[in-house]
Structure formats: structure tokens, C-alpha cells
Design brief:
Blueprint (H helix, E strand, L loop, with lengths): L2 E4 L8 H8 L6 E3 L3 E3 L6 H7 L15 E7 L2 H13 L5 E5 L4 H5 L10 H14 L6 E8 L6 H11 L3 E8 L11 H9 L3 E5 L5 H11 L3 E4 L1 H5 L3 H8 L10 H14 L6 H15 L6 H8 L5 H13 L2 H6 L1
Parallel strand pairs: 1-2, 1-9, 2-4, 3-4, 4-5, 5-6, 6-7, 7-8, 8-9
The chain binds flavin mononucleotide (FMN).
Flavin mononucleotide binds next to helix 9.
């Protein structure tokens, strides 16, 4: 059975996006944006901010578990924060060893830790020992920092540290988000370790998924930007792999999804922020829908959330060309 995970994406995938995308029934679990652990033991409200689903049993509104992701370099502090997340009801703790951000890497966290597999081992071991045995601990890594020399050593370190699961974004930190993703390395990791593994990187279409599955041999996949560009991608993959049939979303369905997204932003009055989020999503939709180009141009300068909602909702009910011409 194919297992699909909605990728953690800082500034892009918050609880609202998790709710909207997991409601299709395509995803089996989600992971929060990273919580940066550098000096503090965070109070509960910080975890609730990143993961409001902790208030509903650690699950999305449609019932998919949401793992809490931590990123940091200090094993003890990571462990202490993981304990708090577990006490608050996190169904799992995921540790980020893949973030390429310069600020983060200056302070030795995220992908820079991949330069030395011992870093991974010590952090995972500390977290694994600290949180209750029934809470799974997982790690998300890349194939390396500057090169792929340590890709197997890093994967072995994750397993030796006691993680139950590993997700591998099939690129190095230096490769950033540039295609291709090197799925062939995932097959080699699978031969080396016995914990379960999720393949990640550059799955934009059902065809990409099939190629990734064939090359990596994995049965679990994490969808990142592809799930934003084509919001029903996970559900289409489930359909193709024997799940219930799915009627592909058309452009008006996507516009309606944007309206619902705006409506979920009830906790902020900041119009610019709301409009910014819609534009950010719309920019990625250009990859999945021909109509998104014109629509993006149409809304680019709009900062009034009510006006934006009106335009989205009108366009959802009329052919996009009419709206663009008005
Ligand atoms: C805007 C953005 C934010 C991201 N934030 C995180 C994060 O918080 N934690 C993490 O582990 N990965 C993060 N990632 C990496 C994604 O989870 C994923 O590994 C990457 O995008 C590759 O998958 P894709 O090619 O399907 O997009 C981020 C990626 C993007 C584009």
C-alpha cells in the first residue's frame, strides 16, 4: 500500500494547508514546519502555534497524524523539547537534518549536521531515549551537504541512533531544490538499513511518482511543492495505486479551495498577510494549471483580502477567461 506524507514547508504549509490537503484523503500523515531549537525549552504555546492539531489528539480535522518537527544541534535541548511535544500529544517527533537555510547552517543545525554522521547519531539517540517508547522518532535528511560521500553513513547513523523511520530528500544541501532529485541513491540506502524509509524530492505528477517508486523501490513518499502545485496530487496517486477513484480537480475547484483557505485565516486581520499567502500558493499553482498564469497577473497587486475573496469566488463560478477580461 502506498503511504503518502505531506512535506513540512516553512512559511507555506501551516495547519490550514494541512487541513485542506489532507481532507482529500490522499495523505496518510503530515509533518509540521520545523521548530528551531537553539537555546530554550519552549513553553506549550509555542508547540500549539506550530501544531494546533495537538489540541485535537495530534491529528488533522480529517484524522491524519501530524508529527512535530524539531531542528537544532544540541542533543540535550532537542531531547527536552521533544519530551514537551510528546507530553502535549505529538504522535511522533521528526528531526530536521535537511534545512539549507544560511542562518540555520551558520549555527550548525539542519543540513550542516550532515557533514558529520556522529551529529545525527547523538541527537537522535538523546531524543529517542527521552521520549516514551510508543512515540516514534524519525529523521529527515538530504543526501549530503556539499557532496554525497556520506549518504550511507548518515543513513546508518539515523538507524543506529534509534530512529524508527527515515525520510530522504534525494539531493544535497548544495543542490538546493534544483532538479533532478537523485532517486537512485534511495535504493542504495534501502539496501543498507532496515528501518522504513520515505522517498522525497521532485514528485510533481503521478508519472514522477511512478518513476520515483520504480527507481527507489520505496512504498512511502513525501510530496512537497508538487502537492501545492497540484493540490489533489496525493489523491490522484492513491487512485492510480488502487485506492478509491478520484475525479481530478479542475481550475474552479482550485479557486474554491483558495476561498476556503482565506476563510480559514480567521485568526489574523492582516490583509496583506492573507493576500500574500494566496499569491504564494497561486505562484506554485502556475506549475499545475495553465489558468493560474493569467489569474496570478490579475491578483498580483491586490492586498485587500475581501476583494481577493470576491474575485476568487466569482472566478470559481465563471470561466477564468471572462474574469480576466472584465
Ligand atoms: C518553502 C519551503 C519550506 C520548507 N520547509 C521545510 C521544513 O520546515 N522542514 C523540512 O524538513 N523541510 C522543509 N522543506 C523541504 C521540503 O520538505 C521537501 O523536502 C523539499 O521541498 C523537496 O521536496 P519537493 O521536491 O517535493 O518539493 C521546505 C521546502 C520549501 C520549498
Amino acid at each position: 500500500m502506498t503511504h503518502l506524507v505531506l512535506a513540512p514547508m516553512e512559511g507555506l504549509v501551516d495547519w490550514r494547508v494541512r487541513q485542506l490537503l489532507s481532507a482529500t484523503g490522499g495523505f496518510d500523515h503530515c509533518v509540521t514546519e520545523f521548530i528551531r531549537v537553539s537555546q530554550n525549552l519552549f513553553p506549550a504555546h509555542v508547540f500549539y502555534r506550530y501544531c494546533p492539531e495537538l489540541m485535537t489528539g495530534g491529528k488533522t480535522a480529517s484524522g491524519q497524524p501530524v508529527l512535530v518537527q524539531l531542528m537544532g544541534h544540541d542533543p540535550q535541548l532537542m531531547a527536552e523539547n521533544a519530551v514537551v511535544a510528546a507530553q502535549l500529544g505529538a504522535p511522533g517527533i521528526d528531526i530536521n537534518f535537511g534545512c539549507p537555510s544560511k542562518t540555520v547552517n551558520r549555527h550548525e543545525a539542519g543540513a550542516s549536521l550532515l557533514k558529520c554522521p556522529d551529529n545525527l547519531f547523538h541527537i537522535i539517540r538523546a531524543v529517542r531515549r527521552a521520549v516514551p517508547a510508543d512515540i516514534p522518532v524519525s529523521a529527515k535528511i538530504r543526501l549530503g551537504y556539499a557532496d554525497k560521500e556520506l549518504f550511507l553513513d548518515n543513513a546508518r547513523a539515523v538507524e543506529a541512533g534509534g530512529a524508527q523511520h527515515i525520510t530522504v530528500h534525494a539531493r544535497t544541501k548544495m543542490e538546493g531544490y534544483k532538479p533532478p532529485a537523485h532517486w537512485e541513491y534511495l535504493a542504495r540506502i534501502r539496501e543498507e538499513i532496515s528501518i522504513t524509509m520515505t522517498a522525497n524530492g521532485e514528485i510533481w505528477t503521478v508519472e514522477d511518482f511512478i518513476r520515483c517508486r520504480d527507481i527507489s523501490g520505496c512504498s512511502s513518499f513525501m510530496l512537497g511543492r508538487g502537492a501545492i502545485a497540484t493540490p489533489d496530487l496525493a489523491r490522484k496517486i492513491k487512485d492510480r495505486t488502487g485506492g478509491p477513484a478520484w475525479k481530478t480537480w479542475q481550475w474552479p475547484d482550485i479557486l474554491q479551495l483558495m476561498v476556503t483557505y482565506l476563510d480559514l485565516m480567521v485568526d489574523t486581520d492582516n490583509d496583506e498577510h492573507k493576500a500574500g499567502r494566496i499569491k504564494q500558493w497561486m505562484a506554485l499553482l502556475r506549475r499545475g494549471y495553465a489558468e493560474a498564469d493569467d489569474f496570478f497577473a490579475l491578483i498580483r497587486r491586490i492586498t485587500d483580502a475581501n476583494m481577493l475573496r470576491q474575485i476568487l469566488s466569482d472566478a470559481a463560478q465563471h470561466p477564468p477567461k471572462q474574469i480576466a477580461a472584465e
